[in-house]
Amino acid sequence: MLSVTLDVDLRWRPRHHPAMQWQRVRFLSLLTLVLCACPDERPGTGEGEGEGEGEGEGEGEGEGEGEPPALPDPNRPDNDSRDADCDGLSDEEEYAGRWPGDARTDPADADSDDDGVGDGVEVGRTLSPDAQCAGRFTGDADPTTRTNPTNPDHDGDGAPDGTEDTNGNGRVDDGETNPLSPDSDGDQFCDGPADVAGVCTGNDDPVAYADSDGDGVPDRLDAAPGDPDADDDGLCDGGNAVADVCVAGEDTDNDGRVDPGESDPARIDSDCDGLADVDERAAGTDASVADTDGDGLLDGVERGSAGSGDPSCPGAGADAAPSSTTDPLVADSDSDGLLDGTEDADGDGAIDDGELDPLDPTDGAEPVVQQACSAAGLRPLRAIVAPEADVQIVVDGRAGRFGEHGSIRAQNAEQGVFGYDAPRQVGFVAVARPPAGGDALVDEAAVRDLIAITGGLTQPISQTLTTWDGFPAVTARYDQPGPARLKERLNAIAAALAPGIEPPLDPASDVDVVDLRIEVAVVRRSAEQTVVIVGALPLALSGGDGVFTLRDLVDGSALGRARDTRGVYCERRSSAGFSKLEILWAVDNSTSMGDEQTAVAAAAQAFVDKLSNSTLDWRAAVLTSSFYSPRTTQDAACTNAVCEARTTSQCRTFTRDLSTLQSAFGEMGPAWVGAGGACNQSREQIVHGAQLMLGFDDPGTREDDGVARFVPASAVDEPGRLRAGADVLVILLGDADDQRFEDRDAASGIDTYEQFFRALPQRVTIGGILCPEDQDCGEGQRSPRVARGLVNRLGGVVGSINDPASIAATVDAIVDAAIADASPYVLARDAISASVKVSMTDGATLGPCNTADVPRSRANGFDYDARTRTASFFGDCRPVVDGALIAVSYRTWQRVPLVINEPCECTCGGGFACLDDGGDQCSCLCRADLTCAPGFAFSRDSCSCVCDSGSAQCDPTRIPADDSCVCLCRDDCGGCGPAQQCNTSLCACTGGVEG
Question: How high does pLDDT run on average in the chain?
Answer without folding.
Answer: 84
